[in-house]
User: What shape does this take?
Amino acid sequence: MSDLKVAIAGAGGRMGAANIRAIAETPGIAVYSAFDRAGTPVIGKDAGEQAGLERLGISIGDDIDAALAGAGAIIDFTAPANSVALAQRAAKLGLVHIIGTTGCSEADDDAIRAAAAAGARIVKAGNFSLGVNLLMGLVKQAAAALPGFDIEILEMHHNRKVDAPSGTALMLGEAAARGRSVELKTHSVRVRDGHTGAREPGSIGFASLRGGNVIGEHRVILAGPSERIELNHIADNRALFAEGAVRAALWARDQAPGFYTMADVLGFN
Ligand code: NAD
Assistant: This one.
């Protein structure tokens, strides 16, 4: 089978660069094109050099049509509006679309699912690591086994992150909600400030910390009357997410059009 040809969205970003490096180390997949927002300083630079590798001879462009013509997949860790627009293009072109972008609204997610129904092969995950996807199963199990325990999710990320709670924290919250057979959106407390009153029983609380260069740390706390369980995940390197995204792209190539998560890729569903 020929190499899967990947268009890298947001090639000038931290994850864009990590995705280029991960592809370079993986057989069966190749960087085909790279693009970023018009007007950003990376436009015109070589995608390999931008990622800290040797020259690839692929210049980072701002023409999306040109970047997607002839590609088989898009790996996209960018921004919600861009990911929605790319999903719609992926549907028209029948492409694999790997979406790592976080901070999507419900309407964004609906539009992405509609694009999957219209012909794109989409894998979307707030976290592409094996460990976090395994942790989701453990959190679901713990939430179901300990019905009276208060669940709180704490996350910390670097000081450039623009959305909160993190996509991973929300995935872990969804897993806890599934364990309790409730909807996260009607049971979550995403911020607390001032005179909040006592904790609502059965709610799932979130807290977000930002600082320094922290790649991603998550703690799920299940607090009972006289004991507490804490489940932690610490990402040591962005390569972790990029390796998961590359694995998802190769997996999605052989799937029918539709919407998938990393749990599908890993066979956890
Ligand atoms: P970053 O700011 O370093 O990079 C984002 C890149 O996207 C930038 O180069 C930006 O110019 C580009 N971009 C934005 N809008 C664009 C558009 N319209 N067209 C083309 N390019 C566009 O951020 P990052 O740290 O690389 O993270 C990117 C996203 O990935 C965030 O949402 C982050 O939360 C998420 N993320 C997800 C995972 C995961 O496993 N799912 C892991 C890490 C980061």
User: Anything to note?
Assistant: The mean pLDDT is 97.
